[in-house]
Amino acid sequence: MAAGAHRRQMAVFLAAALFLAAVLLLQAANAADAGVTSKYRRKLEATVDMPLDADVFRVPPGYNAPQQVHITLGDQEGTAMLVSWVTPNELGNTTVMYGGAPDRMDMQAQGIHTRYDYFNYTSGFIHHCFLKNLKHSTKYYYAMGFGHTVRAFSFTTPPKPGPDAPIKFGLIGDLGQTFDSNATLSHYEANGGDAVLYLGDLSYADHYPLHDNNRWDTWARFVERSVAYQPWIWTAGNHELDYAPEIGETAPFKPFTHRYPTPYRAAGSTEPFWYSVKLASAHVIVLASYSAYGKYTPQWTWLQDELANRVDRNATPWLIVLVHSPWYNSNSYHYMEGETMRVQFEQWVVDARADLVLAGHVHSYERSHRVSNVAYDIINGKSTPVRDPRAPVYVTIGDGGNVEGIANNFTEPQPAYSAFREASFGHATLDIKNRTHAYYAWHRNQDGAKVVADGVWITNRHWMPTNDDGDTTH
């Protein structure tokens, strides 16, 4: 072969090799960037409500025994607790005794009560009592029902807010009262946590004929085994609206607001649906997807002031935002319903270097990479989310187990911003270790409680704003 021909052949071979190497590198890069749509499929059986005579709905024994006991923070920092319960037969005593031992409940507080009517339903006597002057990281015992049937419970207050104060959150949304709901709550109890960040949609009473408010009572008895012993931080969802003009019910959120108070006044809010709390090293902001949030509205004004003046990342490094309708969702179920709130608030959340935005609403599980879509405007056409280390991780966890069933219609192809998604029921935990690191884990109900189906170490956006997308376990 002539030398010139040989050189030409070698040049062609080298060019082909370089092209193949470039293709392989591109494929590898794309594979590394691609999200995971889990092939795991939950059980095939339908989602079914537990029967009304199930033990989890049992009315406690004794005349006028307090039931549906639940607690949430009574102030912003955990030195007060709001205790709520229902007495079914008569008003009874509104006093709560509390103290540091079962036989030393030497403090007392007087509560208030309320009742409401909803179509053909009249509630029991709903009590709310404010326990104050609590010490951080301290176990308290409390009791109510004096004069008839006394019931006693306990809780442990959160650590004093501080940059390295550890805390473990349970993350639950859209729970309902099915057999799957019971599996979710049982798995969370097995994994343990100090408090629950609840992402909205509680009882699903509005799913039943005439918004059967008896289902508010059964749900509250069902979750009492957890929420009577640790604070749940409430987010209002669409199933809390209970707006039903066809049966004459035109006051939104009536059952929810009578039953589930929040410490909104301590947070400078004007409504119970948006507020904030400080738990250990976390500053948790609760937003309302179904209250007005346009420019100059009370929620818009409050959030602007909250981020500018009340968030202190030196004191509480972890900034967590709770909403109900997700801002990033690649499921056809409720697709883009959170878009207007995202457009309104995403720039603020990115500028504030929030660590996580947690949502419910979509009855499946999805976790995003750190992305933002704040560059887009009506003329520049930049409408694709981009990787952004300043941005939060978005988690959709509306997979508690409600009777409406699983959302298994993910859009294809999986968008680049989506890291992991699966059509299963479950719960998650967020275990904050210190100011820099937290371990996030999602657990599907079909596994053993301790099995992590999706896990990732998250580094804090204020103290360690590095890219932390890669350290995952599936």
TrEMBL record:
Chain ranges of the Purple acid phosphatase N-terminal domain: 66-157
Keywords in alphabetical order: Glycoprotein, Hydrolase, Iron, Metal-binding, Signal, Zinc
Swiss-Prot/TrEMBL catalytic activity: a phosphate monoester + H2O = an alcohol + phosphate
CDD domains the UniProt entry points to: MPP_PAPs
Signal sequence region: 1-34
Lipoprotein as UniProt keyword: no
UniProt entry tagged with the keyword Hydrolase: yes
GO molecular function, one term: metal ion binding
The EC number(s) this enzyme carries: 3.1.3.2
Domain Purple acid phosphatase C-terminal: 391-451
Gene3D superfamilies in the cross-refs: 3.60.21.10, Purple acid phosphatase-like, N-terminal
Domain Calcineurin-like phosphoesterase, chain residue ranges per copy: 168-365
Family: Belongs to the metallophosphoesterase superfamily. Purple acid phosphatase family.
Name of the protein this chain belongs to: Purple acid phosphatase
Native organism: Paspalum notatum var. saurae
